[in-house]
Request: fold
Amino acid sequence: MAGCECPVLAGKTALVTGGGRGIGAATALALAQAGADVAVAARTEAEVQSVAEQVRALGRRSVAVCCDLAREDECLRAVEEASRELGGVAILVNNAGTARFAPMWETTGADFGLHMNLNLAAAFHCSRAVLPSMMAARSGWIVNVASSSGKKPYPKQGLYCASKAALIMLSKCMALELRDHGIRVHAVCPGAVDTRMSDQVHPERHRQGWIQPEDVASTILHLLAMPPHIATDEISVRRFMADPL
Ligand SMILES: NC(=O)c1ccc[n+]([C@@H]2O[C@H](COP(=O)([O-])OP(=O)(O)OC[C@H]3O[C@@H](n4cnc5c(N)ncnc54)[C@H](OP(=O)(O)O)[C@@H]3O)[C@@H](O)[C@H]2O)c1
Reply:
């Protein structure tokens, strides 16, 4: 799906959180190839500027928003800047996330707060902020990038698993509440993806056959282009040789 213009997405405004690298950057570029204008939000200015430039090189409009999405006010600012520069957000990809893998007794209240604020609350705040324009348009897509860790317990991942499990459930409740407003909500649950996050949390694992960021991007594009009379609430993506969830 990634790589070709998609009539239903062409000319729409997308906001991708955590769009500076990894899955978010691949998704921003796939959306631009599909014809969307894309706002790219994350903390590292050089990365969001670089992805925004790549979006522009594909012939679409873009804005880079430098922000810390672990804070509610920054989530609201990201949506406000995206909407002001590019028009009301029609496609929101809540992708920014963090992971610190450690036994529970080695994690802290600050770790708990960061996982919940970024992996869960940021999706809530950004989604609430885009709803007025989506509801007015009676159309919109919200994609929450969760994880296989939201569906299955793994050792040393209590905070990450809990935040992603909550995000999956939030997605389903939002899908239920928002369908009457023409807004579609999906959760994507990838297994381990070959990104910087995996460099940090799985440095020992070799990467043969791993999911690539572009694989997740094309799954997201598939969800966005689904026929309007059907819906997929959550979609899991795993390495071919990994166990089904
Ligand atoms: N990699 C995996 O194996 C895997 C598997 C399943 C699901 N996921 C999920 O996929 C999403 C993307 O992860 P990734 O693997 O692509 O990781 P990544 O390459 O590390 O990218 C994470 C992105 O989130 C941004 N981000 C982190 N903290 C932020 C903050 N406080 N405010 C704003 N932006 C922030 C990062 O930019 P800055 O640091 O510059 O802010 C970066 O753009 C995450 O939600 C992750 O949980 C990853």
